[in-house]
Amino acid sequence: MNMEIEEVSYQALPLLSLNHVSLLVKNVWNSVRFYEDVLGFCLIKRPSSFNFNGAWLYNYGIGIHLLENKTMEDLDINDEPRPINPKDNHISFQCSDVNLVKRRLEEMEMRYVTAVVEEEGIKVDQVFFHDPDGYMIEICNCDNIPIVAIPSSCLLKPNKFGTYNSKMSIATPNYSCGFMETLMMENLSMDMLNFSF
């Protein structure tokens, strides 16, 4: 019996970048204060057609959408703080000075844990802590490790937002949008945010 196996290949979706992370929170305004005061996000206008309490924040080329869910309060049987586990789900942010991050967290009396990742003599410092709803945040200097694509069929797009990672050691195709165009679009989007108020 001969069986024919048909190989099916799909093209990846036409993604451009990460747009936002959406989080369920107990109290929108407690979380807004945290993301503004601790992480430096800015509150931005959200569509007025929404009929539920929430808030949108933006900075660093990414949005955070907070959705209030009062039923989360029912899940808090234990008021003890959760252990900070670096292997838990988390959102990670790049920083320029990990020691300054630790000092600021200590000034705010926030609990955190640290970790160090080492690859071929290159070290990455990580700081982990929780937001008011227990979501894990990581702050790191992760750009110390070069990005190297493993499968040869995967062509990574160049870093289009923020600073250019010169350690990206991959062959990238010629994309129609260059660095200056990306920078101009990023500045335009920030200007548009200022107009929204």
Give a structural overview.
One of its GO terms (molecular function) is lactoylglutathione lyase activity. Keywords: Metal-binding. This is VOC domain-containing protein. This protein has about 200 residues and is an alpha/beta fold. Among the domains are: about 55 residues, 2,3-Dihydroxybiphenyl 1,2-Dioxygenase, domain 1; about 60 residues, 2,3-Dihydroxybiphenyl 1,2-Dioxygenase, domain 1. It contains four helices and eight strands, in the order βαβββαβαβββα.
Strand content: 15-25%
For the largest sheet, list the strands in their spatial order.
1-4-3-2
Q: Classify the fold: give the CATH topology of the domain at 82-146.
A: 2,3-Dihydroxybiphenyl 1,2-Dioxygenase, domain 1
Radius of gyration: 20 Å
CATH architecture annotation name of the domain at 82-146: Roll
Query: Considering the protein shown, what is the CATH homologous superfamily of the domain at 82-146?
Result: 2,3-Dihydroxybiphenyl 1,2-Dioxygenase, domain 1
Largest sheet: 4 strands, mixed
Helical proportion? 10-25%
Distance between the termini: 70 Å
Q: Helical element count?
A: 4
> Can you count the beta strands?
8
Characterize the overall form: globular
Structural class: alpha/beta
Order of helices and strands: EHEEEHEHEEEH
Overall average pLDDT: 79
The CATH C-level class name of the domain at 82-146: Alpha Beta
Low-confidence parts lasting 5 or more residues at pLDDT below 50? 160-180
